[in-house]
Amino acid sequence: MATHLPITVHRLRRHLALTKIRILSPAKAQGSTGCTAALAQRRSRRQRARDKVGLRFQNLKDKRIVGDFVGELESTIKKMDCKFDSEKVIEQFESLTKDAKRVQTETLKKILIENGESEYLQKWNLDGRFDPQTYRSCVPVVTHKDLDPYIQKIADGATHPVLTGKPITAITLSSGTTQGKPKFVPYNDELTETTMQIYRTSFAFRNRKFPIGNGKALSFIFGSKQFTTKGGLLAGTATTNVYRSEQFKKTMQAMQTPSCSPDEVIFAPDFHQSLYCHLLCGLIFHEEIQVISSTFAHSIVHSLRTFELVWAELCSDIRTGVLSPRITVQSIRTAMARVLTVNPNLADEIESKCLGLTDWNGLIPEIFPNCKYIYAIMTGSMEPYLKKLRVYAGSIRLLSADYGSSEGWIGANVNPDLPPEMTSFTVLPNIGYFEFLPLDSVEPELVGLTDVMLGEEYEVVVTNVAGLYRYRLGDVVKVVGFHNSTPKLQFVCRRNLMLTINIDKNTEKDLQLTVETSAKLLIKEKLEVVDFTSHVDLTTEPGHYVIFWEVSGDASEAVLKECCNILDKSFVDAGYVSSRKVKAIGPLELRVLKRGTFQKILDHYVGLGSALNQFKTPRCVGPTNQRVLQILCNNVAKSYVSSTFD
């Protein structure tokens, strides 16, 4: 393209229109207008415009030249349209958060106006009143159980507005790790847009601190198996719904972080084959990788643990240019054939680097020299994976992603320079209507987004664009600050994930800290806890805690017995300690699992429709989660009982 063309999208579009006109023959152009004089006048103006910008295609018969120019021009316009303007996004965010109360009122009004004719809202007699006070007094606070019959109607094909005015376009499946089976959650195009707003906002702040250039991302993302509901809606994980949208691809392209893997790998029917090819694509494009990402930190750790096992096979594929026979899905093989070429030099380079690593320390900077940061959700139940992730990351910075759930998004990480353990999430006041249920009040009354108190803990209650009204998420958060007038939240725990038998109350965070304390004993044997979970065993009298560990190798009996005792004494909740002392709670039991047990649990959830990147190890396995409990109990290698309070 001529270098003297003005570089603005508006002018480029004008040049494109003028050029396309020249492709038409005079006869065709005349026939399309029916007004020769007017056409001649317009042609004269166009000719002067073409002369001005230097677009002189004298030989109109050479359509190839014109076609090439048009294609290049269209490509340039597309790239410029997609160009990401971080400062503009930040400016919009600042404007929204300066008057969060007004934005919340307007957001609620918009949601209620759009969905006021739905069966559910008609039930509560709002009568055209859309203010927060009327809404709170008329519409009850609910859990998923209350809305499930309405969601089922939609899934079964109801044609009238059940929860929303606009159609629900898909059904989201929750991960299912909490209750043992996925929940149905309504999904629509508006939720996709709120997802992109979260992505754009956090990227704008992230790119201001840690700018990246044009490159690729090694994104461990996986589409889940989808199925069609009785009513014809596609059902899949929230991440699958997002990844399949055109908006997602355009946003990633604008943010200069497109995945290095073809779509056929992302949406492969077998996640083991998908993961292998993600790793292979990462190696092929290793110098272009600027970001390594996934939804959750667990997915990255799991993927790199897999790399430890298959790196030699990956090198063989690159050396010979032939894809491993372990890849049996033809669509993947066809897609990878476009990417994989014979490259013995690259294979030798990767092999040398892998052999030179000690315990895989610094794997990421060694293999991906231009990687700027690692990006995933690293808070809450993901914190236990940070230790291993830091081993792989070496000097590469870990950045925690944003705060959301299968039901929708809550806030963005706009302070990416903080370590993951200190990450907070700033609520975007226009992506939903938010209320907060105080935890410690005797008769708790919900408060609005701008009425929360610094230092207090609340359960999040959300009203969103996809038909959830005053819906209890079950997430406990702590208010740690404000950005303008909107709160900054830290995730504390899931409210219903709690170890309790008597008057004891131990949260997911309490369990994590206890495991971290006791697992330090494994360091001297150069071992680590690969993963863990827990269960309250009430089949004995009195009931007792059971902690399940998968360890990276064979620890000595003495060390494991001491680990069990330290687990027991590290639960410092006053209710637990006092109950143990008077034997109202029995001795804690540590069950050491066979290696690969948590892989079996992952396979189980993937079989239910979950995706690897959405998987979260259940930290407390309840009695309703019989299949997971069965997997755990069938794979116990050793068992130890605490003698701490004997």
From TrEMBL:
One of its GO terms (cellular component) is cytoplasm. GO terms for molecular function: acid-amino acid ligase activity. Residues 509-621 form the GH3 C-terminal domain. Residues 425-494 form the GH3 middle domain. InterPro entries: GH3 (IPR004993), GH3_C (IPR055378), GH3_M (IPR055377). Keywords: Ligase. The keyword Cell division does not apply. Belongs to the IAA-amido conjugating enzyme family. This is Jasmonic acid-amido synthetase JAR1.
